[in-house]
Amino acid sequence: HDFAWTADKRTAPPLEAIYTGAGSPPVKVKVLFPPEYAHNAPLVMRATLDSLKFFSETLGPYPYRTVTAVIPPFNADEAGGMEYPTFFTTVNARDATPDTIPTYALDYVTIHEFGHGYFYGILASNEFEEPFLDEGLNEYWDLRMVQLRGQRVPLTVAATKRLASRRRWGPSTR
């Protein structure tokens, strides 16, 4: 297994919470983020807490005492979407308008990278020799979680959402 760390003198004070679920120890949840993505931190926290609950209830209690989610800074998109035991990076969304593709991606990547903590982390599947055991099973459980949450995949971005709200679509009234 690999390990990772983060170092950025601009990082804002972390968002913190405690997850308590049956069978799991109390889990200290942290979201690290740069100031320009402070509006992403509550969304990432909610997705991480929801993931802890879903995965713990369906696949078994989360056995660790911590989980840290990191939102990469502007111009560091390549650092997003990586998983390590108890630590993962997600993506960032400049515009986190609800029900848009960027917000859905922020939520889904958070769920997905957390899920690796179960398949790559707890089960210790070999990502390189048998990727279906990690990516495939993880993707399956991620999609089940999204479905059970009742989430829909938005097919719009904030700009097209604003455009659609200005015009009424439908039959002509001429």
Termini gap? 66 Å
**Strand and helix order:** EEHEEEHHH
Overall pLDDT: 87
The portion of residues forming beta strands comes to: 5-15%
**Which overall shape is indicated by the principal axes computed on the Cα atoms?**
globular
Number of strands: 5
Q: What does this molecule look like?
A:
There is one protein chain. The chain has 174 residues and is α/β, with parallel strands linked by helices. Helix content is 40%, strand content 13%. The chain has helices spanning 41-59, 101-122, 131-149, 158-166, and strands at residues 15-19, 27-32, 66-70, 82-84, 87-89. The model is unreliable at 167-174 (pLDDT under 50).
Helix and strand layout, with pairings?
Blueprint: E1 15-19, E2 27-32, H1 41-59, E3 66-70, E4 82-84, E5 87-89, H2 101-122, H3 131-149, H4 158-166
Parallel strand pairs: 2-3, 3-5
Antiparallel strand pairs: 1-2, 4-5
Helix pairs in contact: 1-2, 2-3
Keywords:
5 strands; disordered C terminus; alpha/beta; 4 helices; single chain; 174 residues
Characterize this entry briefly.
This protein has 174 residues and is α/β, with parallel strands linked by helices. The protein has helices at 41-59, 101-122, 131-149, 158-166; strands at residues 15-19, 27-32, 66-70, 82-84, 87-89. Strand 1 and strand 2 form a beta hairpin.
